[in-house]
Amino acid sequence: GYQLAELSGVNPASLIKTHQNINPFAPEMLNEDGLWSGEIWIKHKNQNTYLQRLTINTIFSGGPTAYLRVAFFVDITDITRTQDKLHESQLLLQNTEDLLKMASTMGQLGGWMYEVKTHSLTWSDAIAKIREIEPGLYRTIEDGINNYTTPWREQITHAFKNCLEKGIPHD
Predict the structure, then answer these.
(1) 124 by DSSP, 3-state: which?
(2) What is the 3-state secondary structure (H, E, C) of 44-69?
(3) Model confidence pLDDT, tens digit, residues 45-89
(4) 74-130, pLDDT tens digit by residue?
(5) Alpha-carbon gap, residue 106 to 101, rounded angstroms
(6) In whole angstroms, what is the distance from residue 144 CA to residue 122 CA?
(7) 111: buried, middle or exposed (CB in 10 Å: 19+, 13-18, 0-12)?
(8) How far is residue 109's CA from residue 76's CA, in Å, rounded to a whole number?
(9) CA–CA separation, 94 vs 82, rounded Å?
């Protein structure tokens, strides 16, 4: 970045690029209280640009005349990148869930998912239909295992415990 001496006398607007080519420091951009806030691109000394959240506040000298303007910058480049990746992941997850639901419906397949943190069990729509319960209704693991016939319960319980406690998958 810049050293303080390098910025002395420099118009801050010359370091800012906004999406709308506006100068947030221009008096007409501030609201009636002398405030402005938005996302801007800042050009660093090395000519790279970084997304920033800029908040400008005006300090008045007892009347309508501006005494001082204070600008607070927060680099949000990483936050924005993370939000973009999260959004992409959410879309991918939704697409995957949609495909799985289609395959489950077409193939008349069912399954269940156990959430370790909440100790809840969610059955697929196909299993819910077979069990004649409302889809999306949460159950306990005991409910899930007890829906298997008696000869299979011990094997399912063993496989579940191995997966939960030791990370051993069961196919």
Answers:
(1) coil
(2) CCCCCEEEEEEEEEEEECCCCCEEEE
(3) 787 878 888 888 888 888 888 888 888 888 898 999 999 999 999
(4) 889 899 999 999 999 999 999 988 888 888 778 877 777 888 888 878 888 888 887
(5) 9
(6) 9
(7) exposed
(8) 45
(9) 18
